[in-house]
Every structure is written in C-alpha cells, then in structure tokens.
Specification:
α2 packs parallel to α3. This protein has 268 residues and is an alpha/beta fold. It has 2 domains: 134 residues, Rossmann fold; 120 residues, LytTr DNA-binding domain (OB fold (Dihydrolipoamide Acetyltransferase, E2P)), CATH 2.40.50.1020. The protein contains 8 helices and 16 strands. The strands form 4 sheets. The protein has a 5-stranded parallel beta sheet, sandwiched between helices.
Length: 268
C-alpha cells in the first residue's frame, strides 16, 4: 500500500462530501482517511492524520479554507498537498499565493478530479526520489521569485510568450493564443480557448509590452487580440460592444474606439 494516496476531505456541504467520496472510491490506489465540515476541525484532524492530500473547500464555518491552509503550512516539505474544491473562482489567485497545488471549480467531473490526483501522485513520487531535495530547493527559489516571468523574442521588442509558475508546474502561454486579457488587481487573467491562467503583471504594464498590431486596450479592465474581433456595435450609452471569435462580448469605451479602428485598419 506504499503507493496509496491518503486523502482527507474538508467541506461543510454533505452533498459535496458525498460526491468526492464516490469519485475517490473509483480509484483503487486512493484511500479516504477522514473528513471535516469546518476549517478549525480540518486543521486539527489533518495535523493528527497527516494525509498526503487535502481536498479543501474555501467557504466553511469557524475558519475558511484559505486560513486553514496557512495554518497547516502547506508549503513545508512535510505538509500535505492541498487541492481547493470550490464553487468560487475569485479565490484562485489567493489560493496559489498560499501554494495550493490545484484549484477545482464546482461542478467538476471525474476526469478533472482524476487529473488532479495523478498530478499529486507524480509530485509526491518526485519528492521521494534521491534528487528530490535539490529539485525542491530549486522549485522553492522559483516560487519565491516572480510568479510569472515574461519572455520576449524579436530583440526584446514585444512580448510573445509568458512562463507562469504555479502549483508545482511551469506553464508556457503564447500570446498569439490569447483572445483577451482581463485586469484582476495587480494580476492579469489571460483568456485562451482552453485556459485562463493568472499572470502577476498589472494590465497597464502588460499593455506596454504587447505588439500594438496584435493587441489593443478597449477598456481600463480589458485588452483584446485584434485578430479575434468579429464585430463591433454601438450601444445607447455611446460605448460599443465587441464580439470576439469565441462569442464572448466585451464593452469598449468610447475613448478607445478611434485607436482600435486605427490598429484594425493598419492590419488591412
């Protein structure tokens, strides 16, 4: 049973715990070692049971999941991996700041949970190899540095791709794949057809690094890929609605219309 993944569930909703219990039962190399219904109980029981993985809700009584993971010290080598399982996507940035391993949005399916479990297994296996201490040290240095590093090409003229470090992995995003970019405080969310990663870069700074023939600011909170614009319509308020290739509609401020027109015209 040395390869068995010992899992703990923390969620105040009985239906959510039931679903996780059923999905975990499908995995023969996974065993449920305990459950909790609030954050305080989670901290106490996890410290006693020492599971490999905690499937943790965020909004819970007594203590929320974010505070619980901080108290557990989930960044320490001996601490369990933590995967947040929640219906609220607005906590994603904070979750990765406290070094959550993954973030599952409800409702999720068996395939998504299985993928998270497999990633946890691979990481634990890596940490138990002889070279693990050196690798962990390198990873810690990367995590303690910039959350995401901008990598440019073409003589450092414009940003072409970004490298995002989060949850035990390095993710490469090519800017040509990004349909639009959303401001999230001091972060920017990159919207691609398949992913929505968070980049630790304010939108204003990111706007200055992007190729103006490809990207344009349409609002104080949004940048769009000009190649993905399919339609622009005026509204009664004098602003515009921009429809992108994916079908999503975004508001464009009047003050940005002339510049967007100019850049679209420049592309022919």
């Amino acid at each position: 049973m040395t390869n068995t993944l010992r899992v703990f569930i923390a969620d105040d909703e009985a239906d959510a715990r039931d679903k996780l219990r059923r999905l975990l039962a499908r995995n023969l190399d996974t065993i449920l070692v305990g459950e909790a219904t609030n954050g305080l109980e989670t901290v106490e029981r996890v410290r006693a049971l020492r599971p490999d993985l905690v499937l943790l809700d965020i909004r819970m009584p007594a203590m929320d999941g974010l505070r619980a993971i901080e108290m557990l010290g989930a960044h320490l080598p001996s601490s369990p991996k933590v995967v947040f399982v929640t219906a609220y996507d607005e906590y994603a940035v904070k979750a990765f700041e406290v070094r959550a391993f993954d973030y599952l949005l409800k409702p999720f399916d068996a395939e998504r949970l299985d993928a998270a479990l497999e990633r946890v297994r691979r990481q634990i296996d890596l940490e138990h190899r002889p070279e693990a201490s050196a690798l962990q040290s390198l990873f810690d240095r990367l995590q303690d540095g910039a959350h995401a590093e901008a990598v440019t090409a073409r003589g450092d003229k414009y940003l072409e791709r970004v490298r995002i470090q989060s949850a035990g992995r390095v993710e490469i995003v090519h800017m040509r794949e990004v349909e639009w970019i959303e401001a999230c405080g001091n972060y920017a969310r990159l919207h691609t057809p398949t992913r929505r990663p968070m980049l630790r870069e304010p939108l204003r700074s990111l706007d200055e690094q992007l190729d103006p023939s490809r990207f344009a600011r349409i609002h104080r909170s949004a940048i769009v890929n000009l190649d993905r614009i399919r339609e622009m319509r005026p509204t009664a308020s004098g602003d515009y609605v921009v429809r992108l290739e994916s079908g999503i509609r975004l508001r464009m401020s009047r003050s940005h219309r002339a510049e967007v027109d100019r850049r679209l015209g420049r592309q022919g």
